[in-house]
Amino acid sequence: MELTDLEKIRVEKVNRLRERGIEPYPTRANPTHTMQEALTLLEAAEKAGETPPQNVTLAGRIRAMRPMGKLTFAQVEDGTGRLQFFFRINEVGEENLALLSSEYDLGDFIEGTGNLMRTRTGEPTLQVLSFRMLAKAISPLPAAKDEVVDGKVIHHAGLTDPETRYRQRYADLVVNPEVRKVFTARAAVVKTLRNFLDDHGFVEVETPILQPIYGGAAARPFTTFHNQLKQSLYLRISFELYLKRLLVGMVDRVYEIGRDFRNEGVSFKHNPEFTQLEFYWAYADYLKVMELTEQMVAEVCDKVLGTRKVMYNGQELDFNPPWRRIEMRQGLLEVVGVDIYEHPTAESLSAALYKKGIEHNPNLTRGKMIEGLTSDYLEPSFIQPTFMYDYPRDISPLAKSKPGDPNTVERFEGFVGGMELCNAFTELNDPFDQESRFLEMGRAYEKEDEERHPMDEDYLRAMAYGMPPNGGFGMGVDRLVMLLTDNRTIREVILFPHLREREEE
Questions:
Q1: Residue 414 forms beta bridges with which residues?
Q2: Nearest to 195 by CA among 95, 300, 91
């Protein structure tokens, strides 16, 4: 590693410690409590009128240090919180106090053993009797600093540049406690989703990430090659076709929470690798799935935030069921003034849009034109939780058609904060209809079009054994976390988001 002058000074401290027979990276650490546990013990003893706990060992990272002659105060932090360490020459000795001053730096990990107490100012404190280094930090953490400009004090936070924060998430987590709270909340969201589905009789499974045929979504896959098998494989874009195979196998309620991969553009709501929840529910339809979705998200709000009213982007979102429901046809008629049911072909719809003065690509399929209209004119207005339902057949190749309307399928998408949160169907379970849909998609789209679904003959074979009627659902977990933590970019809720390589300067 290329070291800065400051890092070289810290390396010299490592060498000096070793020369004194002190290992700066010992193999064992022996804390008896976390910081939060120690604070709880202290408060319990005080409440009971007992002597505060003695001979407690705590470990953490030094975040602040204040030498005061024969005394030194330090703020030490672990993953549960901070506690003050109090070093006094009478207890630790002159040599050790000098060692603390000369060889320990902010960012170092320290272990201290001593007695819990409160200072005269009421600060919970460990009165240290002995201590040792657990890990020397070579690179100093980004620190806040004040600068005087034209007689005014300008405060600079320690680490605020978004790209640097994403590239060095480890440092971001240390110096920005609010970031740690986001990922603690994310873990709670995933746990609650899992518990909710478990409690409703769903079985969690794992399906292949490397797949010989991709499908289940409209997206371009990442492609790889297995050398021994001499076979092209794809990182999955969806769990759908494998989960529905399990319905054939009599697993009537099934779900998976895991990673999907899509070789598409990066934006505030898109990352090439993201976390998805999908479930499939035998004998249900998209109306039942709507109700379950409302209940599930409401429970996540209850368990993670303690409220169903959430601030996002300056607006209060109300996740109490029922969510607003709007038919796609009716929504476009009200906002755009075009009745898509009166235009069953792409040519007819294109002519109607030209008549309204709406710019569009006339070479698109009817479904893609309608999708573009909803994206431009409807979705941005769906701030409160909203279900938009009944979609064109040609952009929903895995959904069942509405009875008496072969051009429309039973599909809904859930929108919150002006972006899509989830997608669900009454799933197609007729193998012959499914085969014809695959063939239609192959003819309607160019080979490189991301909407093109390849033919999955094994999936058709599974359907031929008999698939129960069912409702299916998919939700972007990252987007749900964005909404519940008031973050406007997906990169804030993914620990290590994908970033373009930095060009060499």
A1: 387, 422
A2: 300
Is the model's pLDDT at 146 over the cut of 70?
Answer: no
Give dist(CA 63, CA 75) in Å, integer.
5
Say if residue 86 is exposed, middle or buried (CB neighbours under 10 Å; 0-12, 13-18, 19+).
Answer: buried
- The CATH label, of 3.50.50.60, 2.40.50.140, 3.90.1300.10, 1.10.3720.10, for the domain at 5-135 is 2.40.50.140
Structure token digits, residue 65: 């240090």
Please check whether residue 182 is in contact with residue 485, taking contact to mean a CB–CB distance below 8 angstroms: yes
pLDDT, tens digit, for every residue of 302-352?
999 999 999 999 999 999 999 999 999 999 999 999 999 999 999 999 999
Distance, in Å, from the CA atom of 380 to the CA atom of 330, rounded to the nearest integer, reads: 16
Could you check whether the bond before residue 454 is cis, i.e. omega within 30 degrees of 0?
no
CB 17 within 8 A of CB 42: no
Distance, CA of 167 to CA of 186 (rounded, Å): 19
Residues making up the chain, counted from first to last? 505
Q: Is the pTM of this model over 0.85?
A: yes
Chain segment 6-36, per-residue pLDDT in tens: 999 999 999 999 999 999 999 999 999 999 9
Q: Give the whole-number percent of the chain exceeding pLDDT 70.
A: 94
Nearest to 91, CA basis, from 125, 138, 47, 45: 125
Confidence of residue 156 (pLDDT cuts 50, 70, 90): very low
Instruction: Mention the CATH class of domain 177-323+384-492.
Output: alpha beta
Containing 175, the helix (H) or strand (E) segment is helix 169-175
In the numeric block, which tokens belong to residue 169? Answer: 């998430």
Cα–Cα distance list, 363 to 113, 347, 374, 447 (Å): 74, 9, 18, 16
Query: CA 228, 234, 235 angle in degrees (round to 5)?
Result: 115
Do residues 431 and 391 make contact, with C-beta atoms less than 8 angstroms apart? no
Write down the domain spans for the chain.
5-135, 177-323+384-492
